[in-house]
Structure formats: structure tokens, C-alpha cells
Amino acid sequence: MLVKKPADIPYSKVTPKNAYLNRRRFLQGTAAGAALFASRPLWDALTPAARAQSATARKLTGLAKSPFSTTEKMNSYQDITHYNNYYEFGTGKEDPATLARKLKTTPWTVSVEGEVAKPKTFDVDTIMKMAPLEERIYRHRCVEAWSIVVPWIGFSFSELIKQVEPTSKAKFVAFQTLYDSKTMLNSFSAGINFPYVEGLRMDEAMHPLALLCFGLYGEVLPNQNGAPIRMVLPWKYGFKSIKSIVKIKFQEKMPPTTWNLSAPSEYGFYSNVNPAVDHPRWSQASERRLGELFKRKTVMFNGYEKDVASLYSGMDLRRNY
Predict the structure, then answer these.
(1) Phi-psi region of 314 (alpha: psi -120 to 50; beta: other; left: phi over 0)
(2) Distance between CA 221 and CA 243 in Å, rounded?
(3) How far apart are CA 150 and CA 137, in angstroms?
(4) pLDDT class of 27 with cuts at 50, 70, 90
């Protein structure tokens, strides 16, 4: 009998974790544990052994440790997967964990087009094999003045860029998220236009910190965290790290971005973490880490100043917010 190792199983064959856990919860609950599971979050209620077993169906193995990782304490899996911004699945922080279950992540393709020599449509399995996967523990700062530390899994976006060979006209990279009117909120309900779009300068996109992400905490991404493929840009506010990508376009002109279109006086194209630039409705000088009581001082570029400051040399970072 042929036995497949977890590393041999493509993304398209992965069992969704919520389906696995729901099945396990039902079986255990019928035996003896219904009261326990009704009173506590499922992930926290599982024993360590059961927790490890439940993750096996989505496990990503052979991960390299990244030198870009912070040594700060990571937030819990519960924090990371149950306090999310994903307006297509609700405007409340707790909404996506429930509503994003409707998101179908297989099959999934990403079209790469525009000013490139080799435009192509890739499936997620192909993209994941472009480079070795790394675990990168990144700090994140949300514009609403909260922060979080996440063990993301992926590789530098530059690895995909090499595959398509941008032309000399490619000055920016534009990204577009999936929009499915049958399973997602409409623009009126969410308060922003869909599909969600974002963009980077080419030098930002090529920076090794710019992560093309497929997982977190050793597993493939949960739906509410942007499955099956997203960007992670730790020196920028969280809304720049676009989720559930279906299109990447290399272009000569600066692309539109969702929040800049919705509120240009509040959200700029760059959206770098800068404590000296206040949001019009609140200060960005401090933040509260999820799970902590007291606020902490916000630091320039979210603590990645030595890595990315050279990208913005000579720029007025108050004007180019």
C-alpha cells in the first residue's frame, strides 16, 4: 500500500480543518465531552495529543527557520484565527472565523499578467513549489491601534516575480482579491468597494521581507486569514497584506488601493507604520498587543526600520503616508 507523507499531499487534497474538527467534536461529544466543548473554544479544549492529530490534515512540513523572525512571544492560534479583518466576511473582528467557512479554496488559480515576459495562470500547488517554505515570525500593526505576532509560512514574493520576468516598464505590482457575491458581503454592507485591491512599488515587492504566504502555525492558512494565498508586509499596516489573491498585475502606473479609494484622507498608498503620522480619528503613537492589558509605544516601520528604511530615503513620510 502506498502511504503518502504530509509533504506529498497537494493543497487541493487537504481536508479543511473546520470540517475535521467539527467531525471530531461530534464524535467526542457523543461519547462524553459535550459539556466541555460547549463551554470552551474547541482548539483550547483539545488535549495536546488531540490538538496535534487535528492539525495533521493541514500540516506543512520541512519548514526552514527565517533570519527575519522576531524573538517576541507569538500570539495564540485562537487570537490569530478569531480576531480578523476580512470585510468580505463581516465587519466585526469575530465575524470572519464563522462566515469565511463558506469560502471555497480549491481549486484556486492566480493569474499573473501585465508588464511581464512570461504571463501565466498558476495553481496554488505550483506556486507553493517555487521555493522552500519558511516559517517567519512577524510583528503586525493594525491601523486600529492593535498589534499581533504571527508565525507565518511562505517565501519571499520575489521568487514568484523571477518566474514571470517583469519588463523595464514594470514599476508597480497590483493585487486583486477574490470576490464572490454568492458567499460574501456586498459593497454596501461592507462599506468598501469589491473586489479588494492593493499595490506595491516594485522595489517594495522585491524586498525579501515581502512574504507570499500560504500558512501559519505550521498549517495551511485558515479561510479567515486569507486562504489559500496572501501577502504579508510586516512594515506596513495590516490592510496592505492582501488576502485570497486571484490576480497579480505588473504595471507602469501606481495602482488604486481599496482603502485609499474609500477614504483618501485617512489611508495613503504606502501605509507604512509611522507613529508620527496620526490617523485623522486617533493617534498611531501607541498600540495594544492582543492579549495584553497595557499599551506599548509604536515603533517606526513596526520595528523593521533597519531593513526597509532605505526604500524611502529622501521621501517625506508624512506626506507619503
Answers:
(1) left
(2) 10
(3) 5
(4) very low
Q: Enumerate residues 6+ apart whose C-beta is below 8 A from 248.
A: 110, 111, 112, 113, 160, 173, 174, 175, 176
- The CA distance from 218 to 125, in Å, is 17
Please identify which residue in the block is written with the cell numbers 492593535.
Answer: 146
Q: Are 229 and 111 in contact (CB under 8 A)?
A: no
Q: How many Å apart are CA 238 and CA 165, to the nearest integer?
A: 28
CB 198 within 8 Å of CB 257: yes
Decide: 124 and 214 in contact? Cβ < 8 Å.
Answer: yes
Contact between 17 and 58 (Cβ < 8 Å): yes
- The rounded distance, in Å, linking the Cα atoms of 208 and 307 is 9
The larger pLDDT score, comparing residue 135 to residue 1, is at 135
Distance CA 183, CA 209 (A): 32
HSE-up of 136 (CA within 13 Å, CB side)? 24
What is Dmax (Cα atoms) for the chain?
Answer: 66
Q: Give the predicted TM-score (pTM) of the model.
A: 0.84
Residues near 83 by Cβ (< 8 Å), separated by ≥ 6?
Answer: 93, 94, 148, 290
Angle, helix 17-28 to helix 48-55, in steps of 10 degrees: 140
CATH numbers and ranges of domains, the chain: 6-57 (no CATH), 60-312 (3.90.420.10)
